[in-house]
Amino acid sequence: MFVLAFSEEECVKISVTSCDACIKSGPGCVWCQDVNFTKPGELDTVRCDTRSALLKRGCPETKLINPPSSMQFIKNKPLSDGQAKKDLVQVQPQEITLDLRPGKPYSFDLKFKRAQGYPVDLYYLMDLSYSMNDDLKNVKTLGIELLNRLKQITGSARIGFGSFVDKTLLPFTDTNEEKLKKPCPPEESECEPAFGYKHVLSLTDNGEQFKNMVSQQRISGNLDAPEGSLDAIMQVVTCENEIGWGNSTRLLVLATDDGFHMAGDGKLAGILEPNQESCQLDKKNMYSKSNLWDYPSVGQIARKLEEKNIQPIFAVTQKVADVYRELSKLIPKSDVGVLSGDSSNVVNLIVDAYNKLSSNIIVTHDTLPEHVSVTYTTCQGQSSSDRGICNNVNIGQEVKFTVTVKASKCIDLKTFTIGPLGFNEKLTVKVRTRCQCECDNIRNNASEHCNRQGSVVCGTCSCNPQFLGQRCECSVGHKDEAALKAQCRKDNGTECEGRGDCECGVCKCHLTEGGSSYYGPHCECDDEHCEKYQNKLCGGNGECKCGRCKCKDGFEGTACQCQKSTEGCIARTGAVCHGRGKCECNQCVCEGGYKGLKCETCHTCTLPCQQSGSCIECLGFKSGPFQKNCPLSCGHLVPNIVDKLLKSDCRVKDQEGCWMSFTMKERDGFNNYTVNILKDRECPEGPNVGAIVGGSLAAVALIGLLLLLLIKGIIYAKDLKEWRKFEGAATPSMGKK
């Protein structure tokens, strides 16, 4: 989102007519509530401006409305004096309420003092894959020593223990039944079955208990090199009650000799459900969702560690130190220490890391409300966008951070917290905005200033129903306020074009910058804003009338910048712009698609051959539909009858079906042509009646003859058949005689 930034000496307002709208416009906007501040006809917008501008215009200092930002302490206990107490206070103040002016930043000091005797909770999270076998033996004996060293520093310390390996699925762990029970090499007699994460010991100040519980732990194993470290960290962070985290400095020590799996790696084992960032320990304190949820991402781990004020210490071997240093860059308040081959230096490593982390103070905030921003100035005086950082802070040393809070828009009461990472103490900030004016209102519905038809609110009239106007001078009557205001809008635009006040449906126009008045039914006109030429209104050769130049005789142009002349517009034919345009400022302004210096060409125009057919017929051959009024209908054509045409532009049929050929040549103006008409038309020859009649008779005679021959043939064939039949019958009779 893009937010405009204004200085406290700027006031950008648009159509501001109330005190509330004014102070919302910007941090530099001030409202004048003096009832006599505006002149007759002046808009209430002039009441909203910078403080200096309003004072210059005569507004009394006591009548300026400029709500300041302020802070109220709700809880402000003094910082602890360095002695051990049950309720140590390291942050001051503890709770405040800010009333902010939108857009105006407010700064306050946040103090922090490292208290002596502040308790420490340390949870030791160990990798129990087989390569950490030697390290486990040493860790079993370090509990008492580690507790004693921490108590020397803080006076109060607790320690807990947990272990992890990896998900018990391929390709992370061998899923053979025997291997799941004993993932260690055959020669290893004591081996823990494969597991993801196991919580062993809640935080305690009993060193012997730590020693006994850790002594019962056995090494385990898996297949691939990366481990399920992030799975284990997420459970340690989210299982607050099970781990027993208290109001203390919270340290999480991760001891491992390998890298870590992260979000997305679970897909290799067919795990698609993302990590849900919640505690999932079963009755045996085992991570129950190890094979169902994917590994968490680094971002999820960093966010949860910061949310729970837990500071991780990565105690790793040399071969993976660089990997965890890169991880540490992504997690504020974290440190990396390099373990010796058997982890014998782990106590010194943890103590050094604790001293380093606790002396580096990083102040930040949780999720901010919308439209609220926070910045910090560190104890070294350097600005930071979202964090305050102060290094090498000793116990008992007080440091101060300047916190700046700004609300860019009006908001309701919102809450967020600010505090040092790794510490539970937080400053609770309640923030709200001052978006309503507190004016010396005269609540009197019969105020004389408002014509006894309204009351004065922040210097302006709030009219009774059925009345409106700057001083409630207009009686609405049967029309509603919207209908009256609509009469003051031209084409549903701005009321009185923004140049006047709508009073009872009539625009009362304001004065212009030059002292004259706007005019017109909607104040749309003025005589000061016409086009200029050579920095002169209307070029000094005309008068400005309603935003347009009215030129003196002999001048023309939008700014009267040209002397009237057609010298540059005369074509070879003597016509101005060939009759196809206007001559303005001695140059042709062409129309109808014509172009050129003198409007001589039209690349998109075509000859009107078909449209001119009837005129060609009457002009060239005294026939056709225009025969009776040919001069009137075809006056735009000048005909020439010719015996021969070198080329024919047009070929059109007349009413008798004859082809007329002619050429067309443009003359000045639009649709004016000289036409050359070929005197002879191409008409089709008529039919040969004699040939048609003779042919028809011959055809009839031939058909008749053929029919006679056919009938004759049929009769002959029949007679021949009868004769042969008779002849056959007569021959036997003659033989008997």
Q: Topology, pairings included?
A:
Elements: H1 19-25, E1 30-32, E2 48-49, H2 51-56, E3 64-65, E4 70-75, E5 91-92, E6 95-100, E7 106-113, E8 120-127, H3 133-139, H4 143-154, E9 157-164, H5 177-181, E10 197-204, H6 207-215, H7 229-238, H8 240-243, E11 249-256, H9 298-307, E12 310-316, H10 321-329, E13 335-338, H11 346-359, E14 361-365, E15 372-377, E16 383-384, E17 388-390, E18 398-407, E19 414-420, E20 427-433, E21 454-457, E22 460-463, E23 467-468, E24 474-475, H12 481-486, E25 500-503, E26 506-509, E27 532-533, E28 536-537, E29 542-545, E30 548-551, E31 555-556, E32 562-563, E33 581-584, E34 587-590, H13 613-621, H14 630-633, E35 637-642, E36 650-653, E37 659-666, E38 673-678, H15 689-736
Parallel strand pairs: 6-20, 8-9, 8-11, 11-12, 12-13, 35-38
Antiparallel strand pairs: 1-2, 1-3, 4-6, 5-7, 7-18, 9-10, 14-17, 14-19, 15-16, 15-18, 19-20, 21-22, 23-24, 25-26, 27-28, 29-30, 31-32, 33-34, 36-37, 37-38
Helix pairs in contact: 4-6, 7-9
Domain Integrin beta subunit tail: 609-688
Disulfide bonds: 19-29, 22-59, 32-48, 184-191, 239-279, 410-650, 435-439, 458-496, 463-472, 474-488, 502-507, 504-538, 509-523, 525-530, 544-549, 546-577, 551-560, 562-569, 583-588, 585-630, 590-599, 609-618, 615-683, 634-658
Subcellular location: Cell membrane
| Inertia-based shape | flat
CATH H-level superfamily of the largest domain: von Willebrand factor, type A domain
Number of H/I helices: 15
What is the CATH level 1 assignment of the largest domain? Answer: Alpha Beta
Rounded to the nearest angstrom, the distance between the terminal CA atoms is 142 Å
Topology, number of strands: 38
CATH architecture of the largest domain: 3-Layer(aba) Sandwich
Beta-strand content estimate: 15-25%
Rg to the nearest angstrom? 52 Å
- Please bin the fraction of helical residues: 10-25%
Which fold name corresponds to the CATH topology of the largest domain? Rossmann fold
Overall pLDDT metric:
86
Whole-number tally of structural domains: 5
Low-confidence stretches: 1-7, 82-86
Largest sheet report: 6 strands, mixed
Task: Assign the structural class, choosing from mainly alpha, mainly beta, alpha/beta, alpha+beta, or little secondary structure.
Answer: alpha+beta
What spatial order of strands do you see in the largest sheet?
4-6-20-19-14-17
